[in-house]
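Handout, section 3.2

Students often ask what a structure token actually looks like in practice. Rather than define it abstractly, here is a full record for adenine phosphoribosyltransferase. The first block is the sequence as you would receive it.
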Amino acid sequence: MIAILLGVPFVPIRKKGKLPGDCIQASYVKEYGEDVIEIQKGAISPGWKVVIVDDLLATGGTLKAAVDVIKKANATVSEAFVVIELAPLHGREQISGTPVTSLIVYSEA
């Protein structure tokens, strides 16, 4: 809905194997192993400025992987917007070069 209201493209970032066609991948570490996220090749044009919208910023692993996969597409992440941030987990530190806006910040674990 955000993309529609702004009149900009929507590009989903999904776990490995959930998108059709050739994809660009980035991996990240979770508590109990590693996972991979993807975007479709050609979905983001080189030079684009991208805003990432996500539901939760906890440890920052998934958000860092999202930034990495967008950089692999030769685009730039201008900002990340999250609905909820769990500040005690220091997820922002994983993407220190990217501005992050949080709708709700929980400052206690």
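Discussion prompt for tutorial groups: The mean pLDDT is 96. How would you have guessed this from the sequence alone?
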